[in-house]
Amino acid sequence: MMLRDHHGSLSGLNAVVVGRSNIVGKPMAQLLLKDSCTVTIAHSRTKDLKEVCKRADILVAAVGRAEMITGDYVRPGATVIDVGINRIERDGKNKLVGDVEYASAAAVAGAITPVPGGVGPMTIASLLKNTLIAAKKEF
Asked: Quick one: pLDDT at residue 139?
């Protein structure tokens, strides 16, 4: 929903999904394919991962490693969706960060989702929407 709202049509865009989990990576790749994106699924062991990511119009980070994707992985103007949520300790405090190092990526990206506050609230909104649709069909 977020990508369609930002881009309109996704047809023909190059998308890279970094992460191959059955929960996020693979379903996200299928959703992007359904919208006629050209999709590459990459992961932490992909050779030349930085170069693979730099070809993306849409970069989805769902690899499960705190701040693994930095700004030099992002093509200028690309849309970055950070699905990761990681707890790290910084300056003696626990902090939530994504799979994308936000500051460096935001300096390059055309649009980027923050962590926290990005895809999490959208997930909840989508679940509520689907619950209402299911309830309406039941009655």
From this structure: 79
